[in-house]
Write a structure and sequence with these properties.
The complex is a heterodimer.
Chain A: E1 3-7, E2 10-14, E3 19-26, E4 32-38, E5 43-49, E6 56-58, E7 61-66, E8 71-76, E9 85-92, E10 99-100, E11 104-109
Parallel strand pairs in A: 2-11
Antiparallel strand pairs in A: 1-3, 3-8, 4-5, 4-9, 6-7, 7-8, 9-10, 9-11
Chain B: E1 4-7, E2 10-13, E3 19-25, E4 31-37, E5 44-50, E6 53-56, E7 64-67, E8 73-78, E9 87-94, E10 103-104, E11 108-112
Classes of the chains: A mainly beta, B mainly beta.
Chain lengths: ~110, ~110
């Protein structure tokens, strides 16, 4: 059975801190890994990663994939209170549309 | 703006009373998905449509049904809601099969009394 595990499940940091969120996976026929940000409503797409070692970057957020070790990290630098959200990792294997992890709840306090 | 729209945003129903949640999209995407998300849990895929082709997940209860009358609309019918069906229901779309980037609607939060 395909599985996606995120850690930590929750995290509290102060504004300005840098955080690293982890996502490990076990899937057959891996094709891509996606990160989403979910605030009080629906998930919004952040990144899609398909190749190892190539960093995707958007402002203060960046992500990288290691297909050998089967994990990805999402980094957020200089965190702001607006970064508070649940960050979801999902893996696409081509067998089922997406398999989601449980998410990491990030709280950024001023 | 192209988007995924869900109505209503909040729905209260009684135990056993049928309820329908709706989703529409202006993205002209071929694939539409319904997820159930309970508190502190990952979204759980219930089913998806590839065009008119319906794909049910093996562990989706029979109590949950779906209809897609045209490309733009997709409905989730819960025939006899139980207390355990209270959750956020997310609709998502993707351009085509094999297009893993999904665009989510704002969700409908269902409360069962």
């Amino acid at each position: 059975e395909d599985k996606v595990v995120q850690s930590p499940l929750s995290l509290v940091v102060h504004e300005g801190d840098t955080v690293t969120l982890n996502c490990s996976y076990e899937v057959t026929n891996f094709r891509s890994l996606l990160w989403y940000k979910q605030e009080k409503k629906a998930p919004t797409f952040l990144f899609m990663l398909t190749s190892s070692g190539i960093e995707k970057k958007s402002g203060r957020l960046s992500s990288i994939l290691d297909k050998k070790e089967l994990f990805s990290i999402l980094n957020i630098t200089a965190t702001q209170t607006g970064d508070s959200a649940v960050y979801l990792c999902a893996v696409y294997s081509g067998n089922t549309p997406l398999v989601f992890g449980k998410g990491t709840r990030l709280s950024v306090i001023a | 703006d192209a988007m995924v729209i869900q109505n209503p945003r909040y729905q209260v129903t009684q135990f056993g009373k049928p309820v329908t949640l709706s989703c529409s999209q202006t993205l002209n995407h071929n694939v539409m998905y319904w997820y159930q998300q309970k508190s502190s849990q990952a979204p759980k895929l219930l089913f998806h449509y590839y065009d008119k082709d319906f794909n049910n997940e093996a562990d989706t209860p029979d109590n949950f049904q779906s209809r897609r009358p045209n490309t733009s609309f997709c409905f989730l019918d819960i025939r006899s809601p139980g207390l355990g069906d209270a959750a956020m229901y997310l609709c998502a779309t993707s351009r085509d099969r094999g297009q893993e980037t999904q665009y989510f609607g704002p969700g409908t939060r269902l409360l069962v009394l």
